[in-house]
Amino acid sequence: MDYSLPEDSLFLGFDSSTQSLKATVLDTNLNIIASETVHFDSELPHYKTKDGVYRDPSRTGRIVSPTLMWVEALDLILEKFVKAGLDFGKIVAVSGSGQQHGSVYWKKGSSATLASLNPEKPLLTQFGDAFATKESPIWMDSSTMVECREIEKVVGGALQLSQLTGSRAYERFTGPQIRKIYKTLPDVYHDTERISLVSSFMASILIGSYASIDETDGSGMNLVDIRQRVWSKIALEATAPGLEEKLGKLAPAHAVAGLIAPYFVERFHFKNGCLVIQWSGDNPNSLAGLTLNKPGDLAISLGTSDTIFGITNEPRPGLEGHVFPNPVDPKCYMVMLCYKNGSLTREDVRNRCAEQSWDVFNKFLEVTPPLNGGKLGFYYKEHEILPPLPVGFHRYVLENFTGDSLYGLKEHEVDGFDAPSEVRAIIEGQLLSMRAHTERFGMPSPNRLIATGGASANQSILKAIASIFGSDVYTVQRPDSASLGAALRAAHGWLCNKAGKFVPISCMYDNKLEKTSLSCHLTMPAGDAQLLSKYTLLMKKRMEIEDQLVQKLGRS
Question: Which CA distances in Å does 124 have to 73, 117, 151?
Answer without folding.
Answer: 9, 11, 36
